[in-house]
């Protein structure tokens, strides 16, 4: 029978992958479709709030505005004509010259003309807005980080043209196992580093946790550097090591657990070196990481559990430990 001493999970927890992004960021696009006439900036350019970054060909929007204004003028004339006719019909009705049906028809025509004028004015307002929004204007001070299209290309409404990021407030976004979220709270400080330079460690503070599960098991967490001058770059992938105090759950190999089909509990056999006997112990598994199971309760660090052959044991059974033939194997067995 093989056994292993229960260890703290701190040394077994894999770092969590995160990505750096800038808090203030935006995908910029045109509100309407058209052909791009000019793009005044490129990747890496610094821009200021209110600066014009790109323009659509203005002619189609201007022509639609002219047409809309002409439609408004025509609708106004039609309204005036039908209003005059309605007033005349009203006078004739008062003199009992025409029937109520004729007056009702004149009134309906007048009301219809009013609605057509309102519709024409709304179309004119939309056309005027299309002229105003035929340019992309920077929403804040920042830097252009991506350009998706070139001038003289036709784009659709909402198609990304430029991406802009602000100059401050980098943040690190990571997806944490749901089992760990209950142990974290805003304000906890973790560490971040890159594979390329693991010696450059940046302290990051947990700002917020999402209330929604992603893929049924992950929770989005947002961290911010403790030092505002940490020089984290947007888009950079980092490895997040959670606070040591938050990773104190005991861990055992997966082979040590005996699942229970009727509950979320599981069992392990704990070995007592004084009596050379094993006792069955119920535990609550949390999650599996790197071939090991984090145990919420039921075990303490330093206890010895059976890691091979547990399914064939009974509570209180006297056992004998496996003795490997070589010193190397013996070191691995315990």
From TrEMBL:
<dbReference type="InterPro" id="IPR058625">
    <property type="entry name" value="MdtA-like_BSH"/>
</dbReference>
<dbReference type="InterPro" id="IPR006143">
    <property type="entry name" value="RND_pump_MFP"/>
</dbReference>
<keyword id="KW-0813">Transport</keyword>
<dbReference type="Pfam" id="PF25967">
    <property type="entry name" value="RND-MFP_C"/>
</dbReference>
<comment type="similarity">
    <text>Belongs to the membrane fusion protein (MFP) (TC 8.A.1) family.</text>
</comment>
<dbReference type="InterPro" id="IPR058627">
    <property type="entry name" value="MdtA-like_C"/>
</dbReference>
<dbReference type="Pfam" id="PF25917">
    <property type="entry name" value="BSH_RND"/>
</dbReference>
<protein>
    <submittedName>
        <fullName>Efflux RND transporter periplasmic adaptor subunit</fullName>
    </submittedName>
</protein>
<feature type="domain" description="Multidrug resistance protein MdtA-like barrel-sandwich hybrid">
    <location>
        <begin position="33"/>
        <end position="160"/>
    </location>
</feature>
<keyword id="KW-0175">Coiled coil</keyword>
<feature type="domain" description="Multidrug resistance protein MdtA-like C-terminal permuted SH3">
    <location>
        <begin position="252"/>
        <end position="310"/>
    </location>
</feature>
<feature type="coiled-coil region">
    <location>
        <begin position="65"/>
        <end position="123"/>
    </location>
</feature>
């Amino acid at each position: 029978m093989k056994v292993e001493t229960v260890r703290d999970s701190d040394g077994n927890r894999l770092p969590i992958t995160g990505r750096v992004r800038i808090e203030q960021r935006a995908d910029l696009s045109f509100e309407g479709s058209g052909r791009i006439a000019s793009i005044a900036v490129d990747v890496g350019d610094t821009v200021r709030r209110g600066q014009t970054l790109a323009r659509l060909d203005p002619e189609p929007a201007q022509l639609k505005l002219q047409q809309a204004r002409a439609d408004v003028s025509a609708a106004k004339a039609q309204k005036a004509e039908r209003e005059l006719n309605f007033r005349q019909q009203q006078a004739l009705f008062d003199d009992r010259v025409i029937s109520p049906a004729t007056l009702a028809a004149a009134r309906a025509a007048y009301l219809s003309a009013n609605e057509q004028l309102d519709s024409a004015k709304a179309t004119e307002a939309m056309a005027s807005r299309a002229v105003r929004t035929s340019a992309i204007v920077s929403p804040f001070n920042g830097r252009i980080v991506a350009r998706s299209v070139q001038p003289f290309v036709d784009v659709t409404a909402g198609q990304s043209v430029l991406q802009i990021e602000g100059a401050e407030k980098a943040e690190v976004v990571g997806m944490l196992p749901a089992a760990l979220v209950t142990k974290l709270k805003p304000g906890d400080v973790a560490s971040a580093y890159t594979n390329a330079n693991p010696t450059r460690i940046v302290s990051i503070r947990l700002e917020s946790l999402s209330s929604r599960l992603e893929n049924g098991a992950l929770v989005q967490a947002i961290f911010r550097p403790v030092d505002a001058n940490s020089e984290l770059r947007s888009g950079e992938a980092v490895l997040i090591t959670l606070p040591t105090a938050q990773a104190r759950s005991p861990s055992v190999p997966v082979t040590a657990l005996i699942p229970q089909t009727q509950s979320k509990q599981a069992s392990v056999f704990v070995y007592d070196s004084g009596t050379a006997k094993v006792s069955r112990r119920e535990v609550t598994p949390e999650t599996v990481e790197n071939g090991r199971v984090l145990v919420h309760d039921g075990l303490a660090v330093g206890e010895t559990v059976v890691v091979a052959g547990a399914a064939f044991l009974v509570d209180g059974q006297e056992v004998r430990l496996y003795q490997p033939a070589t010193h190397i194997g013996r070191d691995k067995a315990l």
